[in-house]
Amino acid sequence: AVRLRCPCGLVTAFVPWDGQRSGNPVRFRSVPAFAAATDLAVDVPGHGKVVVDIGYGGTFYAFLSAEQLGLDVCSAETRDLVRAASAVTEAVKKQFKLHHPESEDLAFLYGTILTDGKDAFSEEPTTNICVFADEQVDRSPTGSGVTARIALQYHKGLIQLGQTRTFQSSTTGSLFTGKAVKATKIGNYNAVIVEVSGEAFYTGTATFTVEEGDPLKHGFLLK
Protein backbone atom coordinates (compact mmCIF):
# COMPACT_ATOMS: atom_id res chain seq x y z
CA ALA A 1 0.00 0.00 0.00
CA VAL A 2 1.23 3.50 -0.90
CA ARG A 3 -0.62 6.41 0.69
CA LEU A 4 -0.63 9.66 -1.25
CA ARG A 5 -1.67 13.01 0.19
CA CYS A 6 -3.46 14.64 -2.77
CA PRO A 7 -5.20 18.05 -2.89
CA CYS A 8 -8.52 16.17 -2.64
CA GLY A 9 -7.43 14.12 0.39
CA LEU A 10 -5.71 10.85 1.23
CA VAL A 11 -5.64 8.30 -1.61
CA THR A 12 -4.35 4.78 -1.07
CA ALA A 13 -2.68 3.02 -3.99
CA PHE A 14 -1.73 -0.66 -4.15
CA VAL A 15 1.35 -1.82 -6.02
CA PRO A 16 2.34 -5.46 -6.62
CA TRP A 17 5.78 -6.13 -5.16
CA ASP A 18 7.86 -9.30 -5.48
CA GLY A 19 10.62 -8.22 -3.12
CA GLN A 20 12.74 -6.74 -5.90
CA ARG A 21 10.54 -4.65 -8.16
CA SER A 22 6.98 -3.47 -8.62
CA GLY A 23 4.56 -4.88 -11.17
CA ASN A 24 1.16 -4.40 -12.78
CA PRO A 25 -1.68 -3.75 -12.57
CA VAL A 26 -1.62 -1.01 -9.95
CA ARG A 27 -4.81 0.31 -8.38
CA PHE A 28 -6.02 3.03 -6.07
CA ARG A 29 -9.04 3.70 -3.91
CA SER A 30 -10.55 7.14 -4.29
CA VAL A 31 -11.80 9.76 -1.91
CA PRO A 32 -15.63 9.78 -1.66
CA ALA A 33 -17.02 10.36 -5.16
CA PHE A 34 -20.50 11.67 -5.90
CA ALA A 35 -22.93 13.04 -8.46
CA ALA A 36 -23.09 16.83 -8.13
CA ALA A 37 -25.77 17.33 -10.82
CA THR A 38 -27.50 15.21 -13.44
CA ASP A 39 -29.38 16.11 -16.62
CA LEU A 40 -28.29 19.74 -16.36
CA ALA A 41 -29.28 21.81 -19.42
CA VAL A 42 -26.49 24.14 -20.53
CA ASP A 43 -26.35 26.58 -23.44
CA VAL A 44 -23.03 26.12 -25.25
CA PRO A 45 -22.08 28.78 -27.80
CA GLY A 46 -21.83 27.21 -31.25
CA HIS A 47 -23.62 24.05 -30.15
CA GLY A 48 -26.89 25.16 -28.59
CA LYS A 49 -28.46 23.47 -25.59
CA VAL A 50 -26.84 20.26 -24.34
CA VAL A 51 -27.47 18.09 -21.29
CA VAL A 52 -24.57 17.33 -18.98
CA ASP A 53 -23.90 15.47 -15.76
CA ILE A 54 -21.39 16.78 -13.24
CA GLY A 55 -19.49 14.28 -11.15
CA TYR A 56 -16.79 14.54 -8.51
CA GLY A 57 -13.99 11.99 -8.33
CA GLY A 58 -11.28 14.03 -6.64
CA THR A 59 -12.11 16.99 -8.83
CA PHE A 60 -15.24 18.05 -10.73
CA TYR A 61 -15.89 17.20 -14.38
CA ALA A 62 -18.77 17.78 -16.75
CA PHE A 63 -19.79 14.67 -18.71
CA LEU A 64 -21.75 14.34 -21.92
CA SER A 65 -21.75 12.21 -25.04
CA ALA A 66 -19.71 13.68 -27.89
CA GLU A 67 -22.71 12.93 -30.11
CA GLN A 68 -24.57 15.86 -28.51
CA LEU A 69 -21.88 18.10 -30.00
CA GLY A 70 -22.06 16.45 -33.43
CA LEU A 71 -18.87 14.42 -32.91
CA ASP A 72 -17.83 10.78 -32.60
CA VAL A 73 -15.47 10.42 -29.65
CA CYS A 74 -13.78 7.43 -31.29
CA SER A 75 -13.10 8.91 -34.73
CA ALA A 76 -13.26 12.72 -34.57
CA GLU A 77 -10.10 14.82 -34.80
CA THR A 78 -8.67 15.43 -31.35
CA ARG A 79 -8.55 19.20 -31.93
CA ASP A 80 -12.30 19.21 -32.68
CA LEU A 81 -13.03 17.27 -29.50
CA VAL A 82 -10.82 19.66 -27.51
CA ARG A 83 -12.57 22.76 -28.86
CA ALA A 84 -16.01 21.32 -28.15
CA ALA A 85 -15.14 20.11 -24.66
CA SER A 86 -13.54 23.45 -23.80
CA ALA A 87 -16.69 25.27 -24.91
CA VAL A 88 -18.73 23.05 -22.59
CA THR A 89 -16.36 23.71 -19.68
CA GLU A 90 -16.63 27.48 -20.09
CA ALA A 91 -20.42 27.34 -20.41
CA VAL A 92 -20.86 25.20 -17.30
CA LYS A 93 -18.57 27.50 -15.31
CA LYS A 94 -20.76 30.47 -16.20
CA GLN A 95 -24.13 28.78 -15.70
CA PHE A 96 -23.69 26.45 -12.71
CA LYS A 97 -22.15 27.03 -9.29
CA LEU A 98 -20.29 24.09 -7.80
CA HIS A 99 -20.20 23.19 -4.13
CA HIS A 100 -17.95 20.77 -2.28
CA PRO A 101 -19.24 19.71 1.14
CA GLU A 102 -15.83 19.79 2.83
CA SER A 103 -13.67 22.33 0.98
CA GLU A 104 -14.67 25.26 -1.20
CA ASP A 105 -11.10 25.23 -2.54
CA LEU A 106 -12.15 22.10 -4.46
CA ALA A 107 -15.37 23.65 -5.82
CA PHE A 108 -14.21 24.33 -9.37
CA LEU A 109 -14.74 22.59 -12.70
CA TYR A 110 -11.48 21.00 -13.82
CA GLY A 111 -12.66 20.02 -17.29
CA THR A 112 -15.09 18.17 -19.52
CA ILE A 113 -15.09 14.49 -20.42
CA LEU A 114 -16.72 13.54 -23.71
CA THR A 115 -17.98 9.95 -23.88
CA ASP A 116 -19.43 7.47 -26.33
CA GLY A 117 -22.68 7.61 -24.35
CA LYS A 118 -22.41 3.99 -23.21
CA ASP A 119 -23.09 4.51 -19.51
CA ALA A 120 -25.21 1.41 -18.86
CA PHE A 121 -23.26 -1.56 -17.50
CA SER A 122 -21.60 -3.68 -20.17
CA GLU A 123 -18.65 -6.04 -20.45
CA GLU A 124 -17.48 -3.97 -23.44
CA PRO A 125 -15.22 -0.95 -22.87
CA THR A 126 -16.71 2.54 -22.92
CA THR A 127 -14.59 5.24 -24.54
CA ASN A 128 -13.99 8.80 -23.39
CA ILE A 129 -11.60 11.73 -23.76
CA CYS A 130 -10.75 14.07 -20.89
CA VAL A 131 -10.00 17.71 -21.70
CA PHE A 132 -8.83 19.47 -18.55
CA ALA A 133 -7.06 22.56 -17.19
CA ASP A 134 -5.74 24.71 -20.05
CA GLU A 135 -7.11 22.54 -22.89
CA GLN A 136 -4.84 19.64 -21.99
CA VAL A 137 -5.77 16.11 -23.06
CA ASP A 138 -5.19 13.10 -20.84
CA ARG A 139 -3.34 10.17 -22.41
CA SER A 140 -5.40 7.81 -20.24
CA PRO A 141 -9.12 7.41 -19.43
CA THR A 142 -8.26 9.55 -16.35
CA GLY A 143 -8.22 8.24 -12.77
CA SER A 144 -10.37 10.97 -11.24
CA GLY A 145 -12.54 10.95 -14.38
CA VAL A 146 -13.22 7.21 -14.19
CA THR A 147 -13.95 7.68 -10.50
CA ALA A 148 -16.50 10.40 -11.25
CA ARG A 149 -18.09 8.40 -14.11
CA ILE A 150 -18.52 5.39 -11.84
CA ALA A 151 -20.08 7.63 -9.17
CA LEU A 152 -22.56 9.01 -11.72
CA GLN A 153 -23.42 5.57 -13.08
CA TYR A 154 -23.94 4.24 -9.55
CA HIS A 155 -26.10 7.26 -8.68
CA LYS A 156 -28.28 6.57 -11.73
CA GLY A 157 -28.63 2.88 -10.89
CA LEU A 158 -26.72 1.82 -14.02
CA ILE A 159 -24.13 -0.21 -12.08
CA GLN A 160 -24.01 -1.93 -8.72
CA LEU A 161 -21.33 -2.19 -6.06
CA GLY A 162 -18.54 -4.52 -7.16
CA GLN A 163 -19.36 -4.44 -10.88
CA THR A 164 -16.21 -3.76 -12.88
CA ARG A 165 -16.31 -1.56 -15.98
CA THR A 166 -13.56 -0.98 -18.51
CA PHE A 167 -12.80 2.52 -19.76
CA GLN A 168 -10.77 3.30 -22.86
CA SER A 169 -8.93 6.47 -23.88
CA SER A 170 -9.94 7.67 -27.33
CA THR A 171 -6.48 9.18 -27.83
CA THR A 172 -4.13 6.29 -26.98
CA GLY A 173 -6.44 3.31 -26.52
CA SER A 174 -5.12 2.75 -22.98
CA LEU A 175 -7.47 0.97 -20.57
CA PHE A 176 -8.50 1.47 -16.95
CA THR A 177 -11.01 -0.55 -14.99
CA GLY A 178 -13.19 0.92 -12.27
CA LYS A 179 -15.70 -0.30 -9.74
CA ALA A 180 -17.60 1.15 -6.79
CA VAL A 181 -16.43 -0.82 -3.76
CA LYS A 182 -18.21 0.92 -0.90
CA ALA A 183 -21.18 3.24 -0.37
CA THR A 184 -20.56 6.20 1.92
CA LYS A 185 -21.61 9.81 2.58
CA ILE A 186 -19.87 13.14 2.22
CA GLY A 187 -21.85 16.05 3.60
CA ASN A 188 -25.41 15.59 2.30
CA TYR A 189 -24.27 13.63 -0.75
CA ASN A 190 -24.57 9.89 -1.14
CA ALA A 191 -21.13 8.84 -2.34
CA VAL A 192 -19.02 5.82 -3.23
CA ILE A 193 -15.42 4.80 -2.84
CA VAL A 194 -14.15 3.78 -6.29
CA GLU A 195 -11.26 1.50 -7.09
CA VAL A 196 -9.44 2.26 -10.35
CA SER A 197 -6.90 -0.11 -11.86
CA GLY A 198 -4.45 0.16 -14.74
CA GLU A 199 -0.84 -0.14 -15.81
CA ALA A 200 1.92 2.13 -14.50
CA PHE A 201 5.58 2.40 -15.42
CA TYR A 202 8.53 4.35 -14.07
CA THR A 203 9.34 7.45 -16.13
CA GLY A 204 11.90 9.12 -13.87
CA THR A 205 13.07 9.99 -10.39
CA ALA A 206 13.77 13.29 -8.65
CA THR A 207 15.89 14.30 -5.67
CA PHE A 208 15.11 17.38 -3.57
CA THR A 209 17.76 18.91 -1.32
CA VAL A 210 17.38 21.38 1.55
CA GLU A 211 20.50 23.40 2.31
CA GLU A 212 20.89 24.79 5.81
CA GLY A 213 21.55 28.33 4.58
CA ASP A 214 18.37 28.50 2.47
CA PRO A 215 16.17 31.22 4.06
CA LEU A 216 13.04 29.68 2.51
CA LYS A 217 13.84 26.05 3.30
CA HIS A 218 10.65 25.69 5.34
CA GLY A 219 8.46 27.22 2.66
CA PHE A 220 6.48 30.46 2.73
CA LEU A 221 2.96 31.85 2.71
CA LEU A 222 1.56 34.75 0.69
CA LYS A 223 -0.91 37.02 2.46
Description:
The protein has 223 residues and is mostly beta strands. It has helices spanning 78-95, 143-155, and strands at residues 2-6, 9-14, 26-29, 34-44, 48-56, 60-65, 109-115, 126-132, 136-137, 165-169, 175-186, 189-198. The chain has one domain: Diaminopimelate Epimerase, Chain A, domain 1. Helices cover 14% and strands 38% of the residues. Strands 1, 2, 3, 4, 5, 6, 7, 8, 9, 10, 11 and 12 form a twelve-stranded mixed β-sheet that branches. The termini are far apart.
Structural topology:
Blueprint: E1 2-6, E2 9-14, E3 26-29, E4 34-44, E5 48-56, E6 60-65, H1 78-95, E7 109-115, E8 126-132, E9 136-137, H2 143-155, E10 165-169, E11 175-186, E12 189-198
Parallel strand pairs: 6-7, 8-10
Antiparallel strand pairs: 1-2, 2-3, 3-12, 4-5, 5-6, 7-8, 8-9, 10-11, 11-12
Key structural traits:
Diaminopimelate Epimerase, Chain A, domain 1; twelve-stranded mixed beta sheet; 2 helices; globular; trans-L-3-hydroxyproline dehydratase; EC 4.2.1.77
Please report the first level of CATH classification, the CATH class.
Alpha Beta
Are there runs of 5+ residues with pLDDT below 50, and where? none
**Backbone structural class:** mainly beta
| Net shape | globular
CATH architecture: Roll
User: In CATH terms, what is the fold-level topology?
Assistant: Diaminopimelate Epimerase, Chain A, domain 1
Largest beta-sheet characterization: 12 strands, mixed
Strand content: 35-45%
Quaternary state of this entry equals single chain
